[in-house]
Write a structure and sequence with these properties.
The complex is a heterodimer of chains A (446) and B (308). Helices cover 46% and strands 16% of the residues of chain A. A five-stranded antiparallel sheet of chain A has the order 3-4-5-9-8, with no helix packed on it. Chain B has 308 residues and is an all-alpha fold. Chain B folds into two domains: 45 residues, no CATH class; 212 residues, MetI-like (MetI-like fold, Orthogonal Bundle). Helix content of chain B is 78%, strand content 0%. The chains are: A alpha+beta (446), B mainly alpha (308).
Chain lengths: 446, 308
Amino acid sequence: MNQKTFLRNVFERLLRHKLALIGLVIISILLLLAILADIIAPTPYAQNIDAALIPPLKKIYVARSRLMYEKDMYVYEVGDSLKKEYTKPIEINGKVVSVVFKKVDKALQVQIQNGEKKIIPIAPSPQGVLSPYDKIIGEADGFATFVSERSIPAKTFLVKFKPLGEHVLPSKELIGAKLIEVKDWEDLGQAYLVVDKGTGIRHLHAKGASDLTITDEEIGPMGAPLLGTDNLGRDIAQRLVHGSRVSLYVGIVVEIIALLIGIPLGAISGYYGGRIDDWIMRFTDIILSFPGLLFAIAVMAALGRDLINVFIALGVVSWPTIARIVRGQVICLKENEFTEGARAIGCSNARIIMHHIMPNCLAPIIVYTSLGIASSIMSEAGLSFIGIGVRPPMPSWGSIINDGFQYAIYYPHLWIVPGIAIALVVLAFNFLGDGLRDALDPKLKI
Amino acid sequence: MFNYTVRRILQLIPVLIGVTFITFIMFLAVPGNAVRLALGNHPDPVVEARITHQLGLDKPWPVRYADYLWKAVQGDLGNSIKTGEPVTKIIGDRFMATLRLALAAMIFAIIIGVPAGIISATRQYSFADNFFMLLSLFGVSMPIFVLGLLLILLFIVTLGWVPGTGYGNGQIAYLILPSIALGTIPMAIISRMTRSAILEVLKSDYIRTARSKGIIESRVILKHAMKNSLIPVVTVIGNNFAALMAGAIITEKVFNWPGLGTAMINAIDQRDLPIIMGLVLFMAAIFVFINLVVDISYAFIDPRIRYK
């Protein structure tokens, strides 16, 4: 007769659960990535500023042109369209003055604040460069409003300048055509471009850069990075692979901490009852009276960012739930006949808890562990996203997204894949938890 | 009812003391010196001494805790180390923005979550049921900031339906995306809870009686089943509303929302401990308070609870 063990039975039921199976596959991929991280992604920390913010599968080529440095051009940030008004120190004729920029519709108001409130005829071009060639359309209250007169042909690719050692974000109009990036434009005659090799772009029409020709010389050792590069020119794909380690560490270590604290406290609380129970439960109530993420944020703010502190912060929040579940189970089980039987044959309390009660509590603990791993991974991502998770430059999926947050609107490649990765892994552990619940004990309610 | 409410409020006191104590101990454990963290490693000794004294950091910790508690009761949570601004003022200035966001998120979660749960329960294992339950699994698995960024990319950048992020002087258009981002997780949880609560109730005898009397199905569900399945749903709504306060920290960062969350993130960046502590305490107090309101509301919904 073919007799199956309980575990075999559970395993077979789990494999029949389609979503759990999907979860298991995703978790296996995660494990594989984490184990092989050093081999498939050897340089997650390598920076290359020249190759910053390259969209996925794009290459950088050297371009040569009659790029001229124009003395009357001043740089402003068009990308910061969320801000209404801002001031920026700018060097004009050897003197540093502060200039107030105010965005009005598609035009820009400029006011020089060097005491005399003089208006200089500079105007915005879509490239984020002010030059004397553009037209003043109105003056009022010490502000001059300018628009760029140059029309931009539909198929012309716009250029992102990176002069004076600063990043200039492209304006909203540039979003559709962000594949070209001219850098070091002060360096006469040479500029770096990010382009699709297949597009065959040969000429660019941009202020100060006429007849830009793209050569076949590539810049940097990057090749065409699979998922692009971040603002420091680091390969996002490699950082993503290494980030899987952080997620896995956090998930596993936090759950181990939660189990190590939660199971004994819950078991003692439930088994002995009375005053011990009161005290332990009051303590867990107080911890649970903080919203979990808020408590973790407070712990991280107090301890400072580090992976170890993430373990502590999330561990502290996770154990009370386990303790409550175990306590509930133990209270049910200690009234059972098998417990009485064990007591009757003279088992010690410790033995009764360890050998008779705990094995019967395993189902909810296992299910909850899987769901707990999911929520720990999500919390770690949240902490890292608000800048208090792992310590940089260590890549975690949350911190990769945080690094790219400033450029998120213009360069979605900085966060889309890491974001999907977090969601997939959390989903996988949730699927697995659901599957385990159905397989272990269909009556269980969590 | 009155006795029950008073008893619940009295039970709150040890919890609140515990919350303040844990917060206090946590920030007592800050490695290094709180003043130096804010002022930098080589501050002017006079300034350092003055601020240390001002914050009362030269006293032993039990005295400081008692001081802190005494002042907190009087509505004084200390001042910012950096700007000297009272923490209560910061909270006062920004609380409404966060509350607005949390309320909008909760409304979104309820008007989508409860109907989805009812539909799923009444048509168990149908396409709609599977669809909503899978959607809710995706909902709980999607980090707020990823969902928020996706919404921004779709509705602000690509489609241009929403003017932008930020508070927008309180215009409703600016409130929509952040409340969807923040409300999705509670929406998912509420729909699952509504589904299982109604399924549970639908098995009971009085529902069979109601059906056999010939009451139309929609009335059985909405009038008979809903009432008794409200308790777990209200619990979940309450708990999640309270937890939204923490989720709001992330949402506010994504949407540049000028609430308590952005104040918290700024304070963390600046290492401004009095603000961080005050905000943690305030949010925890709100959390505890909302949970209390939920508990008391049980007694209204279900009179049996009052007499336990």
